[in-house]
Structures are given as structure tokens and as C-alpha cells.
Design brief:
5 helices, 2 strands, 58% helix
């Protein structure tokens, strides 16, 4: 798990700093998202039942705005609402790649904050909790969006 904080840092920078100059930005982001996804399966911790303060999102910069500046080509995409309902060709939804990355970054910031301010165990517990219920779907949706968007240019 020594890779967790450095991997988080590589992803969150896109929401904390506008106008990042990074070569192959999308490729690097894709690599780090896959790395975070893999790290989720390596989580091992002892439950820490201490009472800790909560993360204060109000102190964060405008993550969505910074992501939009850093990934100007990101936008909306079509989704299937129930992938298992193969006979239903009508029910589609709209996803937002900027929102996906913004939510991923916010989740990762909270994981990092909990590790650095509460305890390692609290951070890993939150990683396991938020990843399964929220972050994982955003990563899958964003990776699929990036794949579909980039297949047109190859």
C-alpha cells in the first residue's frame, strides 16, 4: 500500500490545479485510475473504532472547474441504465466525464485526508467503503468514455 498516496496525488492534481502542463495527460490519468482500481483489491486493515473528525469539503477549490480546464475535450456521454436488460433498447442515460473525474478526485482527497489526519486504518476503511459504493462506478464510466472517445482518433 506504499503506492496509495503517490497514486492519489497523481490523480488529484487535475482537480487542485488549473492549466496543468502534462504530456500525454489522458494516458497518464488512465494509468493512475487503473492503479487505484487495483489498489482497492489490496486493502488490508484493522478496524479503527476511534471517533475522528469529518472531512470538510468546503475548504476545497472548485475541482470541477479545474478538471474542465485540464481536460477541455471531456464532455457528456450516453449510458445504458440497466445493462442486464438486454431487450430494452430505449432506456439510456447521460454521463459526464468531468463530473466523473471530479467525484473521483473528491473521494480520493477524503481518503488521503483521513490517512494523514485520522489514521491509516480510517483512511483504508473509507477507501473500501467509498470505492465500492461510489468511486468504482465513476472510474469504470470514465475509462469507458476515454476508450470510446479515443477510438475515433486511432
Amino acid at each position: 500500500m506504499t503506492e496509495l498516496i503517490p497514486t492519489i496525488n497523481e490523480i488529484i492534481k487535475y482537480g487542485l490545479q488549473p492549466n496543468l502542463r502534462v504530456n500525454d495527460k489522458e494516458k497518464l490519468l488512465e494509468q493512475q485510475l487503473v492503479k487505484i482500481y487495483k489498489l482497492y483489491f489490496d486493502i488490508e486493515y484493522r478496524f479503527d473504532d476511534a471517533s475522528y473528525p469529518d472531512f470538510d469539503k468546503s475548504q476545497l477549490p472548485d475541482i470541477r472547474q479545474n478538471v474542465a480546464i485540464n481536460f477541455k475535450d471531456f464532455g457528456f456521454y450516453k449510458t445504458i441504465l440497466d445493462i442486464n436488460d438486454i431487450n430494452n433498447q430505449q432506456d439510456n442515460g447521460i454521463g459526464d466525464a468531468i463530473e466523473d473525474l471530479s467525484d473521483i478526485i473528491t473521494d480520493l482527497l477524503q481518503i488521503k485526508w483521513r490517512i494523514e489526519n485520522n489514521s491509516w486504518a480510517d483512511g483504508l476503511w473509507y477507501f473500501q467503503l467509498i470505492f465500492h459504493g461510489h468511486t468504482q462506478q465513476h472510474i469504470l464510466d470514465l475509462l469507458n468514455y476515454m476508450k470510446q472517445k479515443n477510438k475515433k482518433t486511432i
